[in-house]
Design a protein that fits this description.
This protein is of the alpha+beta class. 47% of the residues lie in helices and 20% in strands. A five-stranded antiparallel beta sheet has the order 2-1-5-4-3, with helices on both faces. Strands 7-9-10-12-11 form a five-stranded mixed beta sheet, with helices on one face. The chain has a two-stranded antiparallel sheet with strand order 6-8. The N terminus and C terminus are likely disordered.
C-alpha cells in the first residue's frame, strides 16, 4: 500500500509541476503583452512606430482585440481569428458579445465596463464560445487607450486561451479526489479487516456452543413445551449470529481496496452489498429504498473500487435530496437493466431536485448546491471522470421539487475489443 501511495504521490507531484510550468508560460505571455500595451498607452500617446506596432499586433502570441468607445470591434489580430474561429471581416463593427456562452453573469460584464471606462485595467477569465459552438476559457487583460486629450477613445483586450490548462487543473483535482477516496477506503478497509478477524472468532465460538446446546436438547422429549421454547430461542440467536457474520463480511467486501485492476464484475451483487450497508445509516431510516435488478444483467469489465465509489456518491446524493423535503413518502429507487450492448444503472429519488440553471454545471469541479460544510462539489465530477474512463456515460435529469434521475451506462465485457482506458 505504501509503495502505491508513493507512486500516486509521485505522479501527483509530476502533474502539479507540469501544470505550474504551463501557468508560468501563460503569465510570461501576458506580462510580455502588457509591456507591449504600456508602450502604446503611455499617457494616451502612441510612442511606438506604427509599423512596429502593427508587427507586434500581427505576431503577438496572444489574441488582441481593439474596440471603439461604444465597445464595437475595430480590429482583431490573427491569433484571435485562430482561437475564436471568426475572421476579421466577420467581427468588425460587432459587439464582443458574439463570443458569450451564457456562463458569465451580466453583473460581471457591468463591473468590467465600469472599471475600464474609469481608465483602470481589468483582469479576469471568460468562458466563451467559438464560432463552431465549442466552449473555451480565456484569461483577459482589458484597458483603455487614451487620445491626446487624455480621454479614453478605444479599448484593447489581450487574451490568452487557457482551455488546456483549465482542463489539466480539473483533471488534477479529480485525481487528487480519487487518491483521497482511495486512502479513506484503505483506512476503513484495514479497520474492517481487523474487526472481521477480532469479531469473527468469538462469533464462530458462540455459534458452535449454541449448536452444541441444541444437540444436547435432543435428549429432551420433543413434545415438552420447554424443548420447543428453548429450541425456538436458540434458532433466533443463531439467526442473529448469522446476521452479524453477514454484516462483517459485507463491510470487508465493501471496503477492500485491492480491486485496482479491471476485472469481470457482477454489478447486481455490488448494488445489493451497497444497499444492505446503507440500511445502517440513520439518514435512510424514514426512506423507502426500492431495488429492481435485471436478473439477466451481463458482467462488465471494470474496476470494482471505482464503480463502488460511483454507487456510494449517487445514493448519498439521493438520500440528501429526499431529506431536504418535508414529504413523508420519501422514495429512492435503484434499477439495473441491459440495453443493447450496455448495462444501465439508474438512481431515482423524489427529493428536492436540481434547479434548471444549475444542470449545465452539475459535473463541474467544486460546484455544489449544498449548504457550506455539506459537500465539496467534487462527487459528481469524480463520478463522471470514472464513468468516462470506463468508456461509459452518465446523464442527469431533474426538476425542482419533483426529484432527480441519474443514469449511468457502461459497455458489457463482450463489447470491449481493446483494453479499457486507464
Amino acid at each position: 500500500m505504501k509503495d502505491v501511495e508513493k507512486l500516486q504521490n509521485g505522479t501527483q507531484k509530476t502533474q502539479v509541476s507540469e501544470l505550474e510550468k504551463e501557468l508560468e508560460l501563460v503569465r510570461d505571455a501576458l506580462k510580455h503583452s502588457q509591456h507591449q500595451l504600456s508602450s502604446i498607452n503611455s499617457k494616451g500617446i502612441c510612442h511606438t512606430d506604427e509599423r512596429n506596432c502593427a508587427y507586434i499586433m500581427k505576431n503577438a502570441p496572444v489574441a488582441v482585440m481593439i474596440t471603439n468607445i461604444d465597445g464595437l470591434i475595430k480590429y482583431v489580430n490573427p491569433k484571435f481569428e485562430e482561437v475564436s474561429g471568426y475572421q476579421l471581416h466577420e467581427v468588425v463593427g460587432k459587439n464582443p458579445h458574439i463570443l458569450k456562452s451564457g456562463e458569465t453573469n451580466n453583473q460581471a460584464y457591468e463591473e468590467l465596463w465600469q472599471t475600464i471606462k474609469e481608465g483602470k485595467q481589468w483582469t479576469g477569465v471568460f468562458h466563451n464560445r467559438r464560432k463552431d459552438g465549442e466552449l473555451f476559457w480565456e484569461r483577459a487583460v482589458i484597458t483603455g487607450i487614451k487620445n491626446e486629450q487624455g480621454d479614453v477613445a478605444e479599448f484593447i483586450a489581450i487574451k490568452e486561451d487557457i482551455t488546456e490548462i483549465k482542463e489539466a487543473r480539473e483533471k488534477l483535482a479529480q485525481e487528487r479526489l480519487k487518491i483521497i477516496q482511495q486512502s479513506k477506503m484503505a483506512e476503513v478497509g484495514l479497520l474492517a479487516a481487523g474487526i472481521l478477524h477480532e469479531v469473527g472468532n468469538p462469533i464462530a465460538a458462540i455459534r458452535g456452543l449454541i449448536c452444541e446446546i441444541k444437540d444436547a436438547c435432543l435428549d429432551i422429549d420433543e413434545q415438552k413445551s420447554v424443548y420447543q421454547i428453548v429450541n425456538h430461542q436458540l434458532d433466533q440467536v443463531l439467526n442473529e449470529v448469522d446476521r452479524i457474520t453477514g454484516i462483517t463480511f459485507d463491510i470487508s467486501e465493501f471496503t477492500y481496496t485491492g480491486y485496482t485492476e479491471y476485472e469481470l464484475l457482477d454489478v447486481n451483487a455490488m448494488i445489493n452489498t451497497t444497499c444492505r450497508l446503507l440500511q445502517y445509516d440513520e439518514r435512510w431510516s424514514n426512506t423507502n429504498l426500492q431495488i429492481v435488478l435485471d436478473p439477466e444483467l451481463p458482467a462488465i469489465y471494470a474496476i470494482k473500487d471505482h464503480i463502488t465509489q460511483v454507487l456510494i456518491n449517487l445514493l448519498s446524493n439521493a438520500i440528501h435530496a429526499v431529506n431536504q423535503t418535508s414529504d413523508k413518502n420519501s422514495l429512492v429507487e435503484i434499477f439495473s437493466r441491459y440495453d443493447i450492448a450496455q448495462i444501465q444503472v439508474i438512481v431515482k429519488d423524489n427529493g428536492c431536485g436540481i434547479e434548471t440553471k444549475n444542470l449545465p454545471k452539475i459535473f463541474d469541479n467544486f460546484f455544489t448546491s449544498k449548504a457550506p460544510g455539506e459537500g465539496m462539489g467534487l462527487g459528481l465530477a469524480m463520478c463522471k471522470s470514472i464513468i468516462n474512463s470506463h468508456r461509459g456515460n452518465i446523464e442527469i435529469a431533474s426538476l425542482p421539487g419533483k426529484g432527480t434521475e441519474v443514469c449511468i451506462s457502461l459497455p458489457t465485457e463482450s463489447q470491449l475489443q481493446l483494453q479499457p482506458e486507464t
